[in-house]
Amino acid sequence: MGRPPDPARREATLARATDYVLAHGLTGLSLRPLAEALGTSPRMLLYDFGSKQELVAAVLAEARRRGAVRLAEHLPARAASPEEYLRGIWAWMSAPERAPFVRLFFEVHADGLTHPENYPDQAEAITGWFPTLGAAFREVGTGPDDTVTPTLVMAVIRGLLFDLTTTGDRHRTDLALDRFCELLRR
Amino acid sequence: MGRPPDPARREATLARATDYVLAHGLTGLSLRPLAEALGTSPRMLLYDFGSKQELVAAVLAEARRRGAVRLAEHLPARAASPEEYLRGIWAWMSAPERAPFVRLFFEVHADGLTHPENYPDQAEAITGWFPTLGAAFREVGTGPDDTVTPTLVMAVIRGLLFDLTTTGDRHRTDLALDRFCELLRR
DNA sequence: CATTATATGGTGCGACTGTTTCAAGAACGG
DNA sequence: CCGTTCTTGAAACAGTCGCACCATATAATG
């Protein structure tokens, strides 16, 4: 007996906290401003998530979940060519709407360089792409279990995202992807 | 008259502070632990640098200076081929001794995504490579002022560094660079 | 009503942060 | 010696941080 628990509240808080982190970044995240922006209290955040660390972990998981869903919605199930697939990924990832996700992605990576213990499944964020990409690029790959081609393809994407987020030069980065497509085609 | 100033002290402090930041990262940097590790006091750090912000700026400038010097020492003045040049850059940047610099590089980029105003010359860290790289890759480039090929080349390097620092998989990243060289060659 | 469980506000603790203030020490010239 | 300038220590200030403790409110069962 007693008052029944309300798991929906935690979920709603998590969703809005994820919005907040995507908007403001992870680096300076603090419970009190976050709580105020969410119309709740630091007390409740700790009540729901146990600690700040666990809250952050939940937010990152939620952000990953959202990103995966959106990507799955966007990419064609079977692209006509590797080039088309690659252009699709670049168009999706470099779109301004994805900027908050990209920033969070780079923030997590940078923090993971100093505190790897906090992000145990970070490598999986890279290797997880291999099955999908390996299939999409099998024409230009070296075999069914080729991880090298996906590695290079994602390196180009991430490297160009790094450039784009730093310089803001969309034209030049777009052209660089064109050039990579050209190299792949030959 | 009066006691003469001692500019050497500031320089020595800056050098050792740069060591410290390279070793411990920029994210959690705090004056008191830094001062203690340097055998000085927060009071003196502020006396010498004015504020934490200015100290950080000085440390980043010093780190850039060191990196540039080391790279200039390592790279051959004129490589036999673009491929050899590219392999030289990758070997140098991915070497374990460069890990502290690479981490600092990624940390600055990530922080710059949230606080661009703090890093006014960040774009120059990317575009500054173009003259040098454009010359080295003129055989495979599109012209004398080609910025697209250098953009792609550095994107591959940075993207693979991202992968390497996350997964630690040197073999796979080395192979991916081989693959990129192969694409360039054809 | 009482009981029992969850939900929530308020308050404060201890440890940090960058920075300032005040005072004293240390090295020079006259 | 004095005066001047640079250097340095100790302490405090005002703020933030995550988090814990305690009381109370709320909603269910009996």
Q: How much strand content do the residues of chain A show?
A: under 5%
Oligomer type: homodimer
* Strand and helix order of chain A: HHHHHHHHHH
Structural classification of chain A: mainly alpha
Q: Could you give the distance between the termini of chain A? A: 70 Å
Mean pLDDT of chain A: 94
Helical content class of chain A: over 70%
Overall radius of gyration of chain A: 19 Å
Please give the domain count of chain A. Answer: 2
Parts with pLDDT < 50 across at least 5 consecutive residues of chain A: none
Principal-axes shape call of chain A: elongated
**Count of separate DSSP helical elements of chain A:** 10
Number of strands of chain A: 0
Greatest contact pair? A-B, 47 and 46 residues
Main β sheet profile of chain A: none
InterPro entries (chains A, B): Homeodomain-like_sf, HTH-type_TetR-like_transc_reg, HTH_TetR
Organism (chains A, B): Streptomyces rubellomurinus (strain ATCC 31215)
Keywords (chains A, B): DNA-binding, Transcription, Transcription regulation
Protein name (chains A, B): HTH tetR-type domain-containing protein
